[in-house]
Amino acid sequence: MEEIKQWVEKLEGVVEWSKAHPGSTLRELEGQVHEVIEQIRVELMEDAVAQQGVGGVMEEERCECGGRWVFQGYRKRWVTTREGAIRVRRAYYTCEHCGAGFFPPGSAVGDERGME
Ligand SMILES: [Zn+2]
User: Fold this and answer.
1) What 8-state DSSP symbol labels residue 50?
2) Ligand 1 center to 94 CA (angstroms)
3) Long-range pairs, 23-30, Cβ under 8 A, ≥24
4) Where are the beta strands (DSSP E) in 24-83?
5) How far is the CA of 4 from the centre of ligand 1 (A)?
6) Residue range(s) defining the domain that contains residue 42
7) How many domains does the chain have?
8) Fewer CB within 10 Å, N side or C side of the chain?
9) Could you report the per-residue pLDDT of 68-116, keeping only the tens digit for each?
């Protein structure tokens, strides 16, 4: 995984930053560590969630009004997780009849109706 190399570089960057800033306070160093761990935390969640797919509807699935779902492409959505707000790529559909929006269920993020 290419990301792991980047994460290691980010972690090493904290040590480099400390070397380059002699006399740094505990608070400042804490801030550096926190920021990097936070980034890695979010990126790791995004990568893990992306492995679970983008969601999709079955041919026979219909909107509450009876209309068929029409695929509108993929959307990036923000999802709140315990590890922070992450962006996930999701299939997005609208109802051909009433125009309602729908992100089909995905094992990792669930479904959200009428939102975009
Ligand atoms: Zn509908």
Assistant:
1) H
2) 8
3) none
4) 69-81
5) 43
6) 2-50
7) 2
8) N
9) 999 999 999 888 889 889 999 999 999 999 999 998 877 777 666 555 4
